[in-house]
Structures are given as structure tokens and as C-alpha cells.
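Figure 2 data, in text form.
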Amino acid sequence: MTKADFWRSAGMHLLERSPEGWLRITADFLRAYYTRPEMHPIEASCAQELALHERLMQDPLRTVTEHELSALADGEVAENYRMVLAYRDVLLAAGTIEGAYLNIMTGSGPTLAPLFIDQMVHLIVRNILETCSDPLRVRTAELFFREQSASTEDARLMLADQEIIEMHMRHGQETPPGELISAPIPRSVTLDVLNEHNKHMYWMRSDRFDTVIDFRFGQPCPDALARVIEAWLKHLINIEVRVEPRARIDDPDWRWHVGLDREATRLLNGLYQGHAIPPEELSRIVALFSLRICDPRLVVEGMGDKPVHLALAMDAQKRVKMKPQNLLTNLPLRPME
């Protein structure tokens, strides 16, 4: 089985590429949000809602006044419109998905619901991996925008999609709410472990998010995540870095670290400050990496050629929720124009 048009649920086919390779906003992309269940009219919708929806479908960029929203009979629908239109305005102001994401993460854009942030990351990573032919790397890249459930039984470290696990436990057929384009998950979900022998099955199932990966040190997936981190920084801020998985941090001259999630940040801060971390808390670390910035002129004074230590961790409920924005805001980089 060969590579298919993976992650179609991200909606990348509705966007255009700018000359610099970023994803330019289009009217069809905005229409996809207006047709989501949260905004699409139903039989009970009032006349004002039907008219507003029709106007937006005809002109997705049109200005919507607060008077129009207040006229809607269903207050919850009106609030959904406010959230989506605020998101739309952020996208239009930047012109691209990447530009809007950077504006938000650098503090020059408004705060948006986490759902929109994950959808933006989904699209950006999809764009980055456009020419990737390795299914394990693509599956591992799901960590950038989908929460994972960790299993540590039998001395292994397996990661599965948290939302799919919960749906599987409910035995229902549902559509993951985080996807722009609907991709229903069947009632019976099979969670296969991807490996070098069966990994090509991923292409036909990429939008189901129902495969499991072995994330132990020495397995292919930590290295795959390292490659995605490199591509993420190159694509968004044009920084060349080299990232390598590590089994431990053995650095008497530890100068900088970045947690890739909230729990990892807490644990790395404690280790750096010399605190005694209980073994059961240290066991929450699922991966360690060493990052080196290739151009030493870009790093802050005093950093030299020392590595940046990265960590990814699970919380007390064994959930892994990566925050890729930490890579953009917390590296030891000199201020740039």
C-alpha cells in the first residue's frame, strides 16, 4: 500500500500555498467552518440564523455585526458564531495559517479556544510532512496536535490516541470533534501497533487516528519525533537545529531546557534547580532529547554550543499532551527583527 492523501480531515485541500510555502486562507476553507454542526442550521433554526448562514456561505469574508448575532434566537448558536468569526478574523489578518499561529504564540494575537489551536497545528504539520514517505514519522507527528494515552505495561511504552481510546470504551460511532472535515470512526475500533513490517497500513487509516506506537528509547518513533521537531522549527522560524533522542540527561554544565508539555516543564525545572524528584514522578518522562542550534550566532550570550535539553512527559493519568509552541517561545535565541 502506497502513500495516500493523508489527514484529509485537516482541510489542507481547501487552502493554497503562498510563495514561501505557507498555507494561505481561502473562502472555501472558511465555508468548511460554517458547515460544521456547531454552525450549520437545523430544522428548528430561526429565520435570522438561516439568513445569516446563507449570507456567510455566499461571502465568507463579510463583516457580521453584533446586532446580527444578538438577533439569533439560540444564544448558544450565537456564541458559536462569535468564536468562529473571531478565529476567522485572526486568520484573515495574518493571511496564512502559519502567520496566524505565530502571531498568537508570540503574544501579538488574541487568545483562541484550544480546539482552533490544535486545528492550526494539524494543518501546519500536514504541510510540513507533505513529501514525507515514512508512515511512522507521520503517525508520531500526531503528538503535535492530538492528546495521547500512555501504557507502560510489560516494560513497554505504548502511545494511543486518547480520544479514540475513550470512544472505543464507549463502543459508539462518533466523529472526533477536533477535525475540520468529518471522518467518522466505526463502532468497532481496532488499535494496531505500527512497526516496520506493517506501517504502510497507516495511509488508509490516517484520519481514524487508531494506531499505536512504541515510544521506548531506541525504537524508531522517538527519532521520528526528533525529525518533525527539526522540520517544525525550520518551517516556522527558519532555524536549523539538530535533535537527537537521549536515554538520560548527563550534563554537569546544564544551561537550558524546554519542556514539551506542562508536566515535563515542571520536572525539568525541578531537576535543574537540584530538587529531589520522587522516582514515581521521574517515571512520567516518556522521552528526552538533545537539541543543538546549528548557527551559534543565533543563541543568547553564554549558551555557546551547549545543547538544549528537551523532555516529553505524561501526567498522573498517563496522558501526553504536547505543547509545540514551547519550541517557538522558549529556545535560547537572540531577539530577531
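Caption note: The radius of gyration is 21 Å.
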